[in-house]
Amino acid sequence: MADTVNTIAPASKDENGRSSMAAVNTDPNQIEGESEAARIERLGRQRPEMLDSIWKEAGFVFSIAMSQLLTEYFVSGFTVIIPTLVRELDIPPASTTWPASAFSLVLSSFLLPFGRLADIYGGFYVYLAGCIWYCVWSLIAGFAQNELMLDFCRALQGLGPAAYLPASLTLLGAMYRPGPRKNLVFCIYGAMAPFGFFVGIFFAGVAAQYATWNYYFYIGAVLTFVTVCVAYFTIPNDTAEHKGNGVVQDWWGSLTTSAGLILLVFAITDSSHAPDGWATPYIYVTLILALMSLGAAVYVEGWVAEQPLLPFDVFRIPYMRPFILGLLFTYGTLGIFLLYATL
């Protein structure tokens, strides 16, 4: 069905008396006699105009969906190679949780600030920058010689998905109209998470069994590099659309939220290995600072920031609070189980 309907205007005469026929283009989103529901259904099945070929759309969906796969790859597979890392890098038992925790800690702490950057500058550059950063530090992690270098690389790795995950949702949400095509693309996007979980475990097991643990990181870096190349040529640049949109960064909210989350997770994670547990001075001092920072974040987001990172209105959406609570218990327990079951 054509998107544009051309109608012929009635014959008219110019000032010299000559007859002329004028072609008039009607609204390309309207078809005569079409109901509103049918129009929405039809438009929802069409390929976006900015993706001018099926191959470009396939590349766009592939590169965006890979963001889910790559993130889960370095979450699930890393738990498989932890015993090998503990042995070869001589990591003490009290520190085995940090190589796994550093990645998720940084990712979760900087997700909201990078999401705001995608709102300000568009998802294209934020997505590419996040993937390139991820690729570089995944490669460097493969050359880690000790625990400190590995922890450092894993922490900096986390900045990559913190940038490209919110950017990927920005790009997907803006590219497709509501409808069957958008639903299908989001299904593919979501399905890549469990698939990436399996891919990470598979390659980690193969690397540990038949090569060295380094190849697990090298394979991840190669997959990320391929994603960067495809994304560069298939993702439309949306920077101009976001220019001058009036969105600003919430710097105080970013600072207090990120600092509070980092300090809180550090205190909880390290308390089980500290000399005196929760009674260890640096543990309870860190916990107090974390609670103060998070309290300041609540104040900033609720009463200070003009454009808060996390508006309180989001919690007034029906069923949002139990939904978030369910996610907390689901993903929180899953991460703990994966780590300690491996150890």
TrEMBL record:
GO terms for molecular function: transmembrane transporter activity. The keyword RNA-binding does not apply. Residues 60-343 form the Major facilitator superfamily (MFS) profile domain. InterPro entries: MFS, MFS_dom, MFS_trans_sf. Signal peptide: none annotated. GO terms for cellular component: membrane. It is a multi-pass membrane protein. The keyword Phosphoprotein does not apply. It is found in: Membrane. SUPFAM superfamilies: MFS general substrate transporter. Residues 18-28 have a biased composition (Polar residues). The chain crosses the membrane at residues 60-86, 98-118, 124-144, 188-208, 215-235, 251-269, 281-300, 320-341. Residues 1-28 are annotated as: Disordered. This is Major facilitator superfamily (MFS) profile domain-containing protein. It comes from Friedmanniomyces endolithicus.
